[in-house]
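Internal QA ticket QA-208
Title: Verify multi-chain structure generation after dependency bump
Assignee: T.L.

Test input:
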Amino acid sequence: MIKAVYLGPPGTYSHQAALQQFDYSNEVDYIPTSSIPECIRKLETDKSIDYSVIPLENSTNGQVVFSYDLLRDRMVHEQDISRKGSQVIPTLEIVGEQYVSIAHCLIATGPKQVLGNFSKVKIYSHPQVWGQVNSYLQELQSKFPGTTFEKIDSNSTSEAVRHILKCERQTGVIDVAIAGEVAAKLNQCSVIASNINDVKGNTTRFLILQRRNNRQIVSKSLNVSLMTFTTKQDDPGSLVDVLTILKTHGVNMCSINSRPYNRGKQKWQYVFFVEYYYQKEGHNWDAFYKELGDLCSEWCLWGIFPRNANYYA
Ligand SMILES: O=C(O)C(=O)C[C@]1(C(=O)O)C=C[C@@H](O)C=C1
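Actual output:
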């Protein structure tokens, strides 16, 4: 049976992404883990695991930095990793992407409550959620000025729901969670308000990883490739030079991000994350990678995977 790890417990958006990836198949063992780093660590160390599903970015509040930094760390901080010249060859590779609609709910344990009846509302959720419900939380505060609202981080949205079930009742205090409707239903909790995200159509993009097996099948349709690299920082125009290689080879970039890293004494160094469209035919990919490799201090190819049709939804 195929085994896929995701950020649990059941009912998270990551769970939904895993179900979508495998068409809700019963032939897949969906294994919850307690954190995003744990999703990667399990895939790296437990050979019985086939896939890992991690969130990468949200259409409202951008990068899921935990995930970006896990990829970054594997490129710049891993000692025991294969290398070919300036190319770092990671042990994992990306084989797919999924898009999940995010419709957050405010969830409580008992029957529906009026929050203004409490002096304190403790709200639990995954840290990525706060930036997606900012206006809603501000509205709550203006509606109930006598109530203090406290945001508390949980490992995941569904974990937040489980947590409020365990909280001891305190007079004047209510514990609530922000998560999807599925998490509320699975834990038999009540939904105080639904679809509370600031932007309707809020979507999170997930990546599917496996251990690198060098047997990747590249489909003839539109694929995406993710590359990470560091530039020779003291050379003016070094980033432009790398990006120019994409232009001269007619390769279309579809995203660019950066994350800071510190190695040795030098601060203010960055790893760049660039995604571009990859079509097998019509490009001299060997020349492309050679020219890139010559310009980067270090670079890393994370895989080539089919563009999911929901990207356009
Ligand atoms: O906590 C969850 O439900 C997750 O799957 C994690 C996660 C994230 O890290 O972005 C996924 C989607 C939402 O944007 C909020 C949280």
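Spot checks passed. The chain has two domains: 2-100+204-312, 105-194.
Status: verified.
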